[in-house]
User: What shape does this take?
Amino acid sequence: MRILGIETSCDETAIAVVEDGHKVLSNAIASQIDIHQKTGGVVPEVAAREHIINIIPVIEQALKEANSTWEDIDAIAAVPGPGLISALITGSLTASTIALIKQKPLIPVHHILAHIYGNWCDRKMSAAGENNGEDFNFPILILTVSGGHNDLVLMKDHGEFELIGQSRDDAAGEAFDKVAKLLGLGYPGGPAIQKAAENGDKKAFPLPKAKLDNPYDFSFSGLKTAVLYEVQSHYGKEFDPEKLSSQFVADMAATFQQTVSETLVDNIIKAYDEYRPKEIHIAGGVSANLNLRQHAEEKLKPYNVPLKYPKKIAYCTDNAAMVASCGYFMYKKNQAKYSKWSNLIPSADFTF
Ligand code: KG4
Ligand code: ZN
Assistant: This one.
């Protein structure tokens, strides 16, 4: 079964064609990074206009790369939320319109659940069960960690998700972006901090970790403020981010990155102890972070539990292959629900 996925929740116009929930035939993206670099972050109205310009050419590109025509596409999956409402509208309306004209089933996909399926992309499926892919074994404990969200999820089966922890304030990716800005590094902040941290000392500064009532929740706003105070204590209240010494920036980037990695992995281990999942997955934009991956591997080694993160960096950050994959498994689970065309109503706070 071939599904065309559409993702426009933030600053990527992404379209993909995925077969049977795992075989990625194409994964096309028109990134707006260059445009948002000028403003140091995403301006929703600007993102929305770019989606309108890009969406049809990117759909054509994805179909071409997948060697497919509309006749080969069995269903359309798109994201009505959560995300930037003005950006979501373009993808949702395009998906609804195509589904109506071409009379294809239309599958609404939650953006965070789609990130989870970044881990299914390009995995081999076992002959035994299409539903279970390669060597996936439920229950799976999943950390989804991105710019807009930061959740700990117990996945009992396809379509059965229990949210056990979430960020009380900033998501980790948001903290990466804000700290990068504060240190005079570029947008997006995650890759910039990772690069700067290569020459830094992970223990250069005493940065805090939040303690919360729910042990599986996260909070990164205090950490971000602690970084600000530390920079101010060295360079004064009105410091210029462009004038920090490169060694200071490297040390701060390394210490911040290590603190975030430890906080995320500490919660995974606490949840592992209670829920004893058969696998642990990390997904979302921050799962691209090499320090987080290395730290998770090191700390989880004694537990002897499979740890997976997406096979390609392109499946960590926003993409449409994960949307098509998620759509496939949702459709398999409940075909009747999506068997005919229906409305896809975008909503920034689409419920979990
Ligand atoms: O999943 P994503 O593309 O979009 C949202 O759904 O939010 O995640 C984007 C976030 C950004 O905050 C970006 O800085 C972060 O993922 N990110 C990284 C890395 N690559 C992207 N954070 C840390 N290290 C990276 N290598
Ligand atoms: Zn995302």
In short: The mean pLDDT is 92.
